[in-house]
Amino acid sequence: MPDNAEDRAALTNRQLPEMVLSREENPLTVPRPPPEGFTNTQRAQYRFQVKGNAIITGGAGTLALSAAQALLEHGLSGLSLWDINPDQALPTITSLHKKFPGRRIMTEAVDVRDESAVASAVASTVKVLGSVDILCCFAGVVGCTHALDMKANEWRRTHDINLTGSFLCAQGVARQMVKQGTPGSIVFTASISAHATNYPQPQAAYNSSKTAILSLTKSLAAEWSSYGIRVNSLSPGYMDTILNEGEGLERARRSWNERNPMGRMGDPWELTGPLVLLCSEGGKYINGTDLCVDGGAMAF
Ligand SMILES: NC(=O)c1ccc[n+]([C@@H]2O[C@H](COP(=O)([O-])OP(=O)(O)OC[C@H]3O[C@@H](n4cnc5c(N)ncnc54)[C@H](O)[C@@H]3O)[C@@H](O)[C@H]2O)c1
Ligand SMILES: OC[C@@H](O)C(O)[C@H](O)CO
Q1: Catalytic, out of 80, 185, 206, 233
Q2: 3-state SS record for 197-214
Q3: What is the ipTM score, two decimals?
Q4: What is the C-alpha to C-alpha distance for residues 54 and 47, in angstroms, rounded to an integer?
Q5: Largest CA distance in the chain
Q6: Confidence of residue 40 (pLDDT cuts 50, 70, 90)
Q7: Region Disordered: which residues (predicted)?
Q8: Ligand 1 centroid to residue 135 C-alpha, Å
């Protein structure tokens, strides 16, 4: 805290905006039901319409690219896919350009751990798209190392990418949203590993980084709601993606299916409906919460 009383007051005002505002005082949080005169079909479409521009981190990954297509299908105007290896997304981007002519789709090479890279990617995204209204954080890494063998470097890397990287991107984007004075939606990707320990694979670093995302979600929702920024997370169960393929995972995959009431892994497409809900007008009163999309795995 600064010594000077004036600076302290300014800081306090900035850090603690009025939390309880009436609807009239805080138009950013006011619901916007469908306009009078809409047909039933128009009302249904309006509910899950996605407006504005989005940044998706980990944007070359399987779940992110599936999310990108869904947001575009629901009306997203512009999209910036951020990834440490953005070239991996190029074939999908070519096909998205064909499917959604006229929409602006760009990529940025961003390491989400790098605060200044995040700030400059927000600026260049805004320069091209004009605004940022949605942030979906998918960038993440997983490792299967026994805790007794874990090196500090691996532990830190997992937490840096999964937790700190999510925070830095949210902070960079929220600063832009506050500057715009428009409502926004931030969606983190937690995991069922945030709720229960993975089995049989040893993933203490991954699990704890994802559990921290649940707390980050609530903390930022509490701080940023008065700016009209909603913050939520999704907790996917085991999805059929590259992350869950590879040597040694056959036994694990069998075990995951046996322990799932639906007896199967999820398809990336099955995460997109819940994501669209969190980013649309229909999800406007969902804030500071986590939604498990896991076929019921966490139910028993
Ligand atoms: N696949 C699943 O079953 C599953 C389940 C629960 C949660 N998740 C979470 O969903 C997210 C996406 O998973 P996925 O299966 O699509 O994985 P993925 O490996 O296909 O995608 C992750 C992406 O993050 C990028 N990335 C890694 N480090 C980065 C960094 N420092 N900066 C920027 N980008 C970086 C990678 O290049 C990759 O494109 C992850 O956060 C993961 O933990 C996945
Ligand atoms: O809990 C499921 C996921 O978070 C993840 O896909 C898995 O732990 C990777 O092995």
Answers
A1: 206
A2: CCCCCCCHHHHHHHHHHH
A3: 0.98
A4: 18
A5: 64
A6: very high
A7: 1-39
A8: 15
Give the tens place of pLDDT for each residue, 156-209.
999 999 999 999 999 999 999 999 999 999 999 999 999 999 888 899 999 999
DSSP SS3 for 186: strand
Residues with Cβ within 8 Å of residue 264, at least 6 apart in sequence: 257, 295
Q: Which atom of ligand 1 is nearest to the CA of 140?
A: 41
Residue 206 is among the residues annotated as catalytic for this protein: yes
Return the ligand 2 atom nearest residue 249 CA: 10
Distance 108 CA to ligand 2 centre (A): 26
Is the pTM above the cut of 0.80? yes
Alpha-helix runs per DSSP H in 192-261: 204-224, 250-258
Identity (one letter) of the amino acid at 128? V
Tell me if the domain spanning 46-299 has CATH number 3.40.50.720: yes
Q: Please, which residues bridge with residue 231 across strands?
A: 186
Contacts of 52 (CB under 8 A, 6+ apart): 76, 77, 78, 131, 132, 133, 134, 182
236 lines ligand 1 (CB under 6 A): yes
The CA 239 to ligand 2 mean position distance, Å, reads 8
Which pLDDT score is estimated for 4? Answer: 60
Annotated active-site residue 210? The verdict is yes
Per-domain boundaries in the chain: 46-299
